[in-house]
Structure formats: structure tokens, C-alpha cells
């Protein structure tokens, strides 16, 4: 699913009105009616106080339509107009008059904090103050209204997007934003819904197709793309009947140190589970017996040193290499990493201490093969690109790094981002149970396996990240968020691949 900018959505609105020969108010009625239907379906006529806060632009117009339709169904509705300006949109005025003409309970005008209504825990609050068009901070008393709503404990549904949030621009410092329990957005999610600084304001998200111009949406590149099951499935490459282990590549997994052999074991297990034809592990000598016992399917080569990596020598020609998990940052290991990069000419997956070594030795970037995949968590990313003041600056700096060295960045988080110099992909699989030691090691193995099997680096990153998250989802369904460990994620990688082709939920994990 594409994510469009606010400007792109405005253009889609304009073309829809022009091509379908409807008015802007007709389009507003269409969109708001769909929101009303979703609300009515869930409330089922319940006797719950509904309090709708409308701005004086088109988002407020949406709220007025929804309020009118709820009133027609007999709900206990009070509409409040947040009068933050003397300017009103044309469609707001049309729907304001419609509400006044159909009920004696006229909307209540809010002009200052003295007008704030009481909001109770059992109330249903509809936020339609600002929509996608917000491009400036809120005035002080409206900020306090947002705080009043957030502090009420009421259930809050945001129409299109939570008020105070900008769709695709950085938020001013100390911004006040509606914290919604549920957000119903029109046609496309917004980029800010998935970024760490603002994602928690969204709550549960639902996207409604309001029938915007199909041709424009299909031909226009969005600012990002959401990756779900269908997008991941489209990347999957089925296996030929006459394939053999050599067809799917030989993965070299380099990692581990004394006390951290488990990391390279997890990564290598995941590489095998994700489809690498063969796996050879290069680890310190202390890991030999552990790895041969824990993972008999893999071959093992050991470093001359018993505890750390110092001299990475091997005779095979790997299809792809994964490096960094559990290696530490000893100076001898830094030299060994340089040795590996000088020898390796194919895209490499680098994680964990491999990233920390890169951040301390920026000249090593010049040795990375084109299409290599780096998988930092936020702190590792900060070491690579420096501090940022907001998520949008973080994305821009990350893209600059990708462009300079022709890399792919996989920025791990609740919504893991896959970035190239020009494109942004947002993963939707995964859950909080994956915040557990070793989960990133498993991702390294899966990504290396994808490269081994001949996927392009970008396809390997997108599909691998989705499968990693889906494996975590299957593990959480079995063990709970709290009960998931990294081995559970690795063990379910194959089930995650099967799940791409299953239409019904399979609980047999």
C-alpha cells in the first residue's frame, strides 16, 4: 500500500472532483458517511454520550457530517466547534447549516478554555479539529483543549489523523497531539503514523477507501510504501522442482566471541530456516563444539584465537555473508573485519558490533560492496549518522548514507524501515514480544539467506524483514509477547513463509 503526502492527497481530491463531476462537499459526504458507518457498526445504538470536536476547516466538515448522521440514528451527540480562527471552509459552512437545520441542539462554540466541556471516562470523543492540512503549531488554548481531551480518559476516535499531528513534516518541539485510541484515515495512511516520535498517537489504525481517482493513485509514486502480506508475497520466488542445495547459495555467517556464541548460532539457524542451501559458520575456536552440537546442519570454521575473531580465513566462495553478531569491538576484530571486507565482493549483511566497528572506522564504508544491508537499531544508527532532532531529519540523513555508499538500511523498530537513497518501505509485521535478546541476530540470518537465494538486495531486505516480523507474530500467538525468545522466532521462519499462502489463520505453530 502506498503512503501519499498531504499535497498528493489534495491533488487526488481535486482530480476526483473533476473526473467524477461531483462537488467537494459530495466527496466530504462520501468519506464522512463511511466513518459514520464504521462507528454505527461498533456502537450499535448504545446509549453513550458522543462528543464531537470540529475544527472550522474540512476536517471539521467531516465531523459535522458524522455528527448529523449519528443524530439521525438517535445517538446522544453534542457537537463542539473549535473556533480558532475567523476563516471557515465552504464545505464546513454547508454542513454547519445542515446540522442547525435538522436539530434544535445546535453546535456549541468553543472560543477559550472557559468554554471547555466536561469529558467523562465513559464518553465517546470524535476528534475532527484538524486533518491532513495542518502545517503550523496549535494556538495555546487549542493545545489546552487537546490536553483536556487526552486527560479525560474517554475513548477517542480521530478522523483522518489525530489533531496536532502533521502528515509528512517534522513536528515542532513540545507539540501537543491528540492521543487517539483509534484512527480512521482516508485512502492512505500518513508517514507520521509509523515514525517513533508520533506513532503512539494513532492507536489502532483503519484506512477507508473513499474512491479517490484510481489512475492518479496508481501512477503516482508515494512518499513510502507499507509492506504487508500481499506485498511480501509478491516478492516471493517459488522453488523449481529440480533445484539442489547449490541453487540456493552458500551462506557464510561470521560472528560470535567468548560468551556470545549463541548469537551466531541463532543467526545461522535462521539462515538455514529461511532457505539458504548451505551455511558455514566462522567463529572463535571456543565455539566449535557448541556450534557443531547445536546446529549439525551447518559447517564450522574457527579462528586461530579461542575467544575473539582475529584472522578470518576461508576457502569457500559464499553467495552472501552475514557479519557482526556477538563479535565485540576488540582492535584485532576490527582488523579482521577489514580483512573480510577486502576479500568479500558480494553484498554483505552487517549487524550489531559490525555496525559499531563501522561507526568507529568510517573508512571501512568504502570497502562495502554495493547493495550491502546494514541493520541498525536506533542507537547504532545514531553512531553511524549522528544525532537527529526529529524523525524526518533521521530519514534524510539515513538516505544520504545510502546514497553515498549505495547501501540499504534496515532501521529496526516497532515499524522497521527499509531505506534506499530514494525509497522508504515500512514493515507492518511484528510485535512487542520481539524486543528480546537475539531477535536481531535472527534477522541477520534471514536477510543473509534471502541474498543467498538470489533475491536482489532490496527484495531480500523487504521480504526478510516481513518474514522476521511474521515469525515473531506466530511465536507470540503460541507463547505470548512475554514468552517469546529469539529461538522461537528462528524456529517459525518456515511457518512464516507458508503463511504467505494461507488465507486462514493457522494456530498450529
TrEMBL record:
Residues covered by the YjeF N-terminal domain: 9-218
EC number: 4.2.1.136, 5.1.99.6
Positions annotated to bind AMP: 412-416, 440
GO function term, MF aspect, one: ATP binding
Chain sites annotated for binding (6S)-NADPHX: 58-62, 131-137, 160, 326, 377, 441
InterPro entries linked to this entry: Carbohydrate_kinase_pred_CS, CARKD, Nnr, Ribokinase-like, YjeF_N_dom, YjeF_N_dom_sf
Domain YjeF C-terminal, residue spans: 228-500
Keywords, alphabetical: ATP-binding, Isomerase, Kinase, Lyase, Metal-binding, Multifunctional enzyme, NAD, NADP, Nucleotide-binding, Potassium, Transferase
Cofactor: binding comment: Binds 1 potassium ion per subunit.
Presence of keyword Kinase: yes
Cross-referenced CDD domains: YXKO-related (cd01171)
Membership in a protein family: Belongs to the NnrE/AIBP family. Belongs to the NnrD/CARKD family.
Subunit structure: Homotetramer.
Function noted in UniProt: Catalyzes the epimerization of the S- and R-forms of NAD(P)HX, a damaged form of NAD(P)H that is a result of enzymatic or heat-dependent hydration. This is a prerequisite for the S-specific NAD(P)H-hydrate dehydratase to allow the repair of both epimers of NAD(P)HX. Bifunctional enzyme that catalyzes the epimerization of the S- and R-forms of NAD(P)HX and the dehydration of the S-form of NAD(P)HX at the expense of ADP, which is converted to AMP. This allows the repair of both epimers of NAD(P)HX, a damaged form of NAD(P)H that is a result of enzymatic or heat-dependent hydration.
Name this protein carries in UniProt: Bifunctional NAD(P)H-hydrate repair enzyme
The organism of origin for this protein: Salinimicrobium catena
Amino acid at each position: 500500500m502506498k503512503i501519499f503526502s498531504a499535497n498528493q492527497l489534495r491533488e487526488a481530491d481535486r482530480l476526483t472532483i473533476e473526473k467524477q463531476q461531483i462537488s467537494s462537499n459530495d466527496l466530504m459526504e462520501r468519506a464522512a458517511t463511511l466513518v459514520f458507518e464504521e462507528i454505527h457498526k461498533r456502537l450499535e445504538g448504545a446509549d453513550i454520550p458522543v462528543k464531537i470536536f470540529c475544527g472550522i476547516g474540512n476536517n471539521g466538515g467531516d465531523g459535522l457530517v458524522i455528527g448529523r448522521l449519528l443524530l439521525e440514528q438517535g445517538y446522544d451527540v453534542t457537537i463542539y466547534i473549535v473556533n480558532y480562527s475567523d476563516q471557515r471552509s465552504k464545505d464546513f459552512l454547508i454542513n454547519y447549516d445542515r446540522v442547525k437545520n435538522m436539530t434544535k441542539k445546535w453546535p456549541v462554540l468553543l472560543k477559550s478554555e472557559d468554554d471547555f466541556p466536561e469529558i467523562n471516562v465513559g464518553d465517546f470523543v470524535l476528534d475532527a479539529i484538524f486533518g491532513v492540512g495542518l502545517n503550523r503549531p496549535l494556538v495555546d488554548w487549542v493545545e489546552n483543549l487537546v490536553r483536556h481531551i487526552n486527560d479525560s480518559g474517554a475513548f477517542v476516535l480521530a478522523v483522518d489523523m489525530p489533531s496536532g499531528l502533521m502528515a509528512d513534516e517534522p513536528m515542532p518541539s513540545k507539540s501537543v497531539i491528540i492521543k487517539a485510541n483509534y484512527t480512521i484515515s482516508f485512502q492512505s495512511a500518513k508517514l507520521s503514523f509509523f515514525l517513533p516520535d508520533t506513532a503512539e498517537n494513532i492507536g489502532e489504525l483503519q484506512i477507508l477507501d473513499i474512491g479517490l481517482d484510481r489512475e492518479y493513485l496508481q501512477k503516482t509514486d508515494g512518499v513510502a510504501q507499507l509492506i504487508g502480506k500481499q506485498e511480501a508475497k509478491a516478492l516471493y520466488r517459488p522453488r523449481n522442482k529440480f533445484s539442489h542445495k547449490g541453487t540456493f547459495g552458500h551462506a557464510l555467517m561470521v560472528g560470535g566471541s567468548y560468551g556470545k556464541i549463541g548469537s551466531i548460532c541463532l543467526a545461522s539457524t535462521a539462515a538455514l530456516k529461511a532457505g539458504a542451501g548451505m551455511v558455514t559458520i566462522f567463529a572463535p575456536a571456543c565455539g566449535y563444539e557448541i556450534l557443531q552440537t547445536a546446529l549439525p546442519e551447518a559447517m564450522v570454521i574457527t579462528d586461530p584465537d579461542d575467544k575473539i575473531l582475529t584472522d578470518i580465513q576461508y576457502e569457500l566462495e559464499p553467495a552472501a555473508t552475514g557479519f557482526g553478531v556477538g563479535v565485540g569491538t576488540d582492535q584485532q576484530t576490527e582488523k579482521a573485519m577489514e580483512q573480510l571486507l577486502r576479500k568479500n565482493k558480494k553484498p554483505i549483511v552487517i549487524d550489531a558490533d559490525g555496525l559499531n566497528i563501522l561507526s568507529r572506522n568510517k573508512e571501512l564504508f568504502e570497502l562495502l560492496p554495493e547493495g550491502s544491508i546494514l541493520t541498525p537499531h536506533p542507537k547504532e544508527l545514531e553512531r553511524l549518522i549522528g544525532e537527529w532532532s526529529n524523525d524526518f531529519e533521521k530519514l534524510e540523513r539515513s538516505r544520504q548514507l545510502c546514497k553515498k555508499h549505495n547501501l540499504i538500511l534496515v532501521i529496526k523498530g516497532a515499524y522497521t524501515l527499509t531505506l534506499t537513497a530514494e525509497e522508504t518501505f515500512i514493515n507492518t509485521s511484528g510485535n512487542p514480544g520481539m524486543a528480546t535478546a537475539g531477535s536481531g541476530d535472527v534477522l541477520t540470518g534471514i536477510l543473509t539467506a534471502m541474498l543467498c537465494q538470489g533475491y536482489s538486495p532490496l527484495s531480500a531486505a523487504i521480504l526478510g524483514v516481513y518474514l522476521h516480523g511474521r515469525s515473531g507474530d506466530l511465536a507470540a500467538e503460541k507463547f505470548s509477547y512475554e514468552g517469546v525468545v529469539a529461538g522461537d522466532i528462528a524456529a517459525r521462519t518456515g511457518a512464516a513463509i507458508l503463511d504467505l499462502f494461507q488465507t486462514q489463520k493457522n494456530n498450529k505453530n
